[in-house]
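Severity: low
Component: inverse-folding endpoint
Summary: output formatting inconsistent between runs
Steps to reproduce: submit the following structure tokens with default settings.
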């Protein structure tokens, strides 16, 4: 995962708990969390992510767990942010606070599911903002998301965080494609 973001986003550390291929069980797990309302599964998988990060020995202390935000309208329709549920599970293991409303999505973007790498980047360019950069200065932020495909969303989030606040950023995702 770190290699896929190298030169694109200045991250300290990157981790994906799982890899998936189309049609395999990990993809079904992601769909159950994201589209089938299985919130408890997201929290459970977040705990697994936190445990794996803690056991890795590569990760230095993280101050803030920050889920990649959904646009408020999309979150209202879905009823939850799956990345926030993953972060809550991670917080049960890692000694870090969860900040759900500091990184915000300013623009409701179209789904990324069937977009090319360039279309994904254009879809998320300049859509994230940091409400309270002073709360992040000098801290190590762990961005949390459900899946990293092209990295466009994570790249845009890292850009917003590093431009607005003097902080370091790492990334943890539940899954990435093989």
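Observed output (run 2 of 3):
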């Amino acid at each position: 995962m770190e290699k896929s973001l190298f030169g694109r986003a200045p991250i300290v550390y990157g981790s994906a708990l799982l890899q998936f291929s189309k049609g395999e069980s990990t993809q079904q797990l992601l769909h159950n969390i994201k589209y089938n309302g299985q919130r408890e599964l997201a929290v459970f998988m977040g705990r697994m992510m936190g445990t794996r990060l803690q056991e890795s020995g590569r990760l230095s202390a993280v101050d803030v767990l920050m889920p990649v935000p959904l646009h408020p309208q999309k979150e209202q329709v879905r009823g939850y942010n799956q990345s926030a549920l993953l972060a809550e599970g991670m917080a049960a293991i890692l000694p870090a606070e969860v900040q759900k409303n500091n990184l915000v999505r300013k623009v409701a973007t179209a789904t990324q599911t069937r977009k090319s790498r360039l279309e994904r980047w254009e879809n998320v360019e300049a859509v994230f903002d940091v409400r309270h950069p002073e709360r992040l200065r000098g801290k190590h932020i762990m961005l949390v998301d459900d899946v990293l495909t092209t990295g466009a969303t994570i790249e845009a989030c890292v850009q917003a965080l590093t431009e607005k606040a003097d902080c370091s950023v790492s990334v943890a995702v539940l899954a990435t494609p093989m």
